[in-house]
UniProtKB/TrEMBL annotation, chains A, B:
Substrate binds at residue 252. It comes from the Bacteria. Gene3D superfamilies: 3.30.300.330, 3.30.465.10, 3.30.70.3450. The active site is at residue 309. Belongs to the FAD-binding oxidoreductase/transferase type 4 family. It comes from Leptospira borgpetersenii serovar Hardjo-bovis str. Sponselee. FAD binds at residues 105-111. Keywords: FAD, Flavoprotein. One of its GO terms (biological process) is lipid biosynthetic process. This is FAD linked oxidase, C-terminal domain protein.
Length: 389, 389
């Protein structure tokens, strides 16, 4: 269930069994001069089938697309038979089956095979930092780059809290551990942070492609940086990020073993609502757990809006950690819901998000999905109690 | 039901009532400096709701996307209540509802409102012709432009028969009518065409964008033209095409009134199968009606493949025109089906394509869609007998 079945070099399509993990899949393609370009933070421990089932996004999805856009056809085993979708670039034949099974999180069947779009390994890449005076100005920059249709692989904008965290983590001395630093931050946050008055925000921007394209795109981005009072901060930050991009979950585990809770949650919204949702999300999180620090970055951006990715760091309630977490989760989910923003941009629904997903989904559509499920899985054996069932 | 409801300039999104026709919609946006960029051949007589219901493609969809990609959210009235999808750039919340209702062809409800992505009117455009030695080489050119990731608005490759038709139509004297020309062609086709040995094929390529982008993209395309032995044929062809792009259906009506049948059908396939499907499609059509002329063009192209759009011109059987048409339709549809190609790329399914759509769709998915329909439209009043129901 984890084999590389075929590569169609002419059509830039590859077919894999869906149980293949990220590193093996990517290496199989690299060996032939191709890349999938799909790098979720869980890359090392997640599979192609899992990505499709949960509508995953990767860190370079600005360039390569979310997994549902990368998907060309799939094979799915259901209790009532096998589903195979056509290997077609586009069609106008009824509802789009790939988009029904992508995101189905196991409720309709098990994805066993998929044909996905691949790309030639880019000739070069340039990842660099830019410092902006504020989050709001950073958002304006992102919007302009997207509307100017400059192809980027990644534009990641950290808000002021996240910018400070990364800055401090990057400058930690050998004697200071991340745990000690975070504890210190939590204790002193009101005194220290609120008085600094420093709203600076960092963007990490990535370009991949031919040398010609990367150079031309960088030239188009430079005047937009200047227009928005940005300061080009060189490529060292970008290289550091590439080097450590899968490490964050490990840091989280380390902190949690030391009594410091960490969680993340993400949504998306259109540009007109990004700033309000950013502020309300941060406020909701910090209100939900006294003494917590909340921060946010824009991880993906589009023609019409962006993904807001929040992190909360908090002193764990050692007696009732579950109650503490559920309260926080409820409050931030309610904030997303009240803003008309989806309960997830790329983490999926599962059980934790089910309540808000169902509330946000119009009844006829919800009942229709359940009827689809019931028809395909008559004995209701597939992942019961999740998403919408 | 045909109002322009709002424009969100910051998010480049516009909201319309779905009954609005193409010209009014496009003009409303143009007046504000924007464009939808969606120009199906039926533009003047089709509506936004119809485009979404049938997963329409426009002539510049290479640049702006098919309508399901342009769609951000919609409102749909169903017998069991109203459905509204979230105004979100992206999410990972279950099956993608927009992609269930796009392509539903009225089976689930009536689309009454939609929010769609709009673009600033491009600063400039450059549409030009290129002549290639053969269809096969033209396909290689298209593939390379797509894999080189050069943004184009349109790449339309006519095969040798279509190239000859357009060439002749373009050079008609005032005394010669299209009807006389086509009749003549049909009578003399074996003698004339088969002996010419001229395989030349024309590509019409369109670029839209800023002056800088159009100029850079043209520079990237030039060496690819040379590599594939293409001959740059200037912009006159492009201007002619823009001027007359909605006229083809009128020519068809004119021919049919004169006993000459014309029909079109389209599908899509991956690059590895384009040439075989092109040949088999032409052969099927010409075999299905003795004395007919079949031709084809690539109307849309993608990372992994392209849309093949066929035209057949034939002497109408005045006694049994329906029998003649059904036979032809059956034979070409069977050819698409046997090649694993969808029964339509942008015309939709309706009644004519239902048989082949159902055969190409795996049973569990087909039954699931019917269950979805039955749940949402319990009395089965919406467009019965179409698509999959």
């Amino acid at each position: 269930m984890n084999s590389f079945l075929s590569l169609d070099e002419g059509s830039h399509l590859a077919t894999f069994q869906a149980g293949i993990y990220g590193p093996k899949l990517e290496k199989s393609l690299n060996d032939k001069g191709f890349t999938l370009g799909h790098f979720p933070q869980s890359f090392e421990y997640s599979t192609l089938g899992g990505w499709i089932a949960a509508r995953s996004a990767g860190q370079q999805s600005n360039r390569y697309g979310k997994i549902e856009e990368i998907l060309t056809s799939l094979k799915l085993i259901t209790p009532t038979g096998t589903v195979e979708t056509l290997r077609e670039p586009a069609s106008s034949t009824g509802p789009e089956l790939n988009r029904i099974f992508a995101g189905s999180e196991g409720l309709f069947g098990i994805i066993t095979e998929a044909t996905i779009k691949v790309h030639r390994l880019p000739e070069t890449r340039k990842y660099f930092g830019i410092v902006f005076p504020s989050f709001s100005i950073g958002v304006d920059f992102i919007r302009e780059v997207n509307h100017r249709e400059i192809p980027t692989s990644m534009i990641r904008l950290s808000d002021k809290n996240e910018t400070r965290l990364y800055k401090t983590l990057g400058s930690l001395g050998k004697k200071e551990t991340p745990v000690r630093w975070v504890k210190n931050q939590i204790q002193n946050r009101i005194l220290q942070w609120k008085s600094l008055g420093d709203n600076k925000c960092v963007i990490l921007l990535g370009l991949d492609g031919t040398k010609e394209d990367v150079s031309q795109n960088f030239s188009k981005i430079k005047p937009i940086i200047r227009k928005h009072q940005g300061l080009y901060a060189g490529t060292r930050l970008g290289e550091q990020w590439i080097h450590s991009r899968y490490n964050m979950p490990f840091l989280r585990n380390h902190l949690m073993e030391n009594g410091i809770g960490v969680d993340t949650m993400e949504t998306s919204t259109t540009y007109d609502r990004v700033l309000r949702l950013h502020q309300e999300g941060i406020a909701s999180l910090e209100k939900s757990i006294p003494g917590s620090i909340a921060m946010c970055h824009i991880s993906h951006s589009y023609h019409e809006g962006a993904c807001l990715y929040y992190t909360i760091i908090f002193p764990m309630d050692e007696k009732k950690p579950a109650d503490q977490w559920f309260k926080m989760k409820r409050i931030i989910s309610e904030t997303f819901f009240q803003n008309g923003a989806p309960i997830s941009h790329h983490h999926g629904v599962g059980f934790d998000h089910k309540t808000w997903y169902e509330r946000a989904t119009s009844k006829p559509a919800l009942f229709g999905l359940r009827a689809f499920k019931k028809e395909i899985d008559k004995k209701e054996i597939l992942n019961p109690g999740k998403v919408f069932y």
